[in-house]
Write a structure and sequence with these properties.
CATH superfamily: Class I glutamine amidotransferase (GATase) domain
Strand content: 25-35%
Distance between the termini: 24 Å
Number of helices: 7
Shape: globular
Number of domains: 1
CATH class: Alpha Beta
Number of strands: 14
Largest sheet: 10 strands, mixed
CATH topology: Rossmann fold
Length: 278
């Protein structure tokens, strides 16, 4: 597995999916993520911001399309956290927006995981790519004003497979348990094929304000409408197929057999779609 920047290791004889796995902008458990990536039947290059930014340039888009079958997002660009203060939001450059347009017009498959749904909060277009957004501060999306999103750590929950015959779900049991973080945020679930649903509480009584947490404060007045129970879905954006998996906080998921199967299935399916196009 390549883990030293943007350097894909391409073996012509290796038919495994080639995955560009982006990280940076949000802390993560590197050891357990490494174990997850090592468990995949794929050739993975771990690419960290700001090096990942080289992919979102005209020449970077060409290299990405040539060297990889799947773009996996476990990153969170566009937000700078300042301890005890409100986060700073950074708009994507024109090159980054143009690169995303080129990638999705060319059909680059995208796998979004966990906190990637909070990326580029000032750019409405990114929320359309993943069909939702986690807000670290109150914001507007599709003309609607939303409070900051909620989160709950270490929630033991049951995942119910909604589409057992879908390639992403093949081999999974009808339901399985997982302990992971839950989100309470806008999800456009009417516009996607929901693969898995959770039985975890979806109301604000069971979640904490993200905006208060990053400022190291509490906000007893915080309220949020109930969240969707969808935690895995797929849809098309432009010519690209997108899969989003909400769980993925750390070892509890990364070391879980069924979660590993879910990620591996998603990678293999997306890569197969891409190779059929070539």
């Amino acid at each position: 597995m390549g883990r030293l920047g943007y350097c894909a290791r391409v073996d012509i004889a290796d038919s495994r999916p080639r995955v560009a796995w982006l990280v940076g902008g949000h802390p993560y458990d590197a050891a357990s993520l490494g174990r997850l990536l090592d468990s995949l039947d794929a050739e993975v290059s771990l690419i960290t911001w700001p090096t990942a930014g080289e992919m979102f340039t005209p020449s970077g888009v060409i290299r990405l399309l040539q060297d990889f079958d799947v773009l996996a997002l476990y990153d969170m660009p566009g937000i700078r956290f300042r301890p005890g203060e409100s986060p700073e939001f950074v708009a994507p450059s024109d090159d980054i927006v143009a690169a995303w347009s080129a990638l999705t017009n060319r059909g680059m498959p995208v796998l979004g995981l966990h906190h990637s749904i909070a990326s580029w909060p000032t750019w409405p277009g990114f929320a359309e790519i993943l069909k939702g957004r986690f807000h670290y501060a109150p914001a507007r999306l599709r003309g609607v004003s939303y409070p900051d999103s909620g989160y709950a750590m270490n929630v033991k929950q049951r995942f119910d497979v909604a589409m057992p015959d879908h390639p992403v779900c093949v081999g999974l049991p009808t339901s399985f348990e997982l302990t992971d973080e839950t989100y309470q945020c806008p999800v456009f679930d009417a516009e996607v094929a929901v693969l898995i649903r959770t039985n975890a509480p979806r109301d604000d009584a069971h979640h904490t304000s993200a905006f208060a947490a990053v400022r190291r404060k509490s906000d007893p007045r915080w309220r949020h409408s109930p969240a969707s129970d969808a935690v895995a879905w797929t849809h098309s954006y432009g010519a690209s197929q997108v899969v989003y998996l909400q769980p993925g906080e750390g070892p509890e998921s990364f070391d879980n057999h069924w979660y590993r199967m879910l990620v591996n299935n998603a990678v293999k399916w997306l890569a197969e779609l891409q190779r059929r196009r070539q």
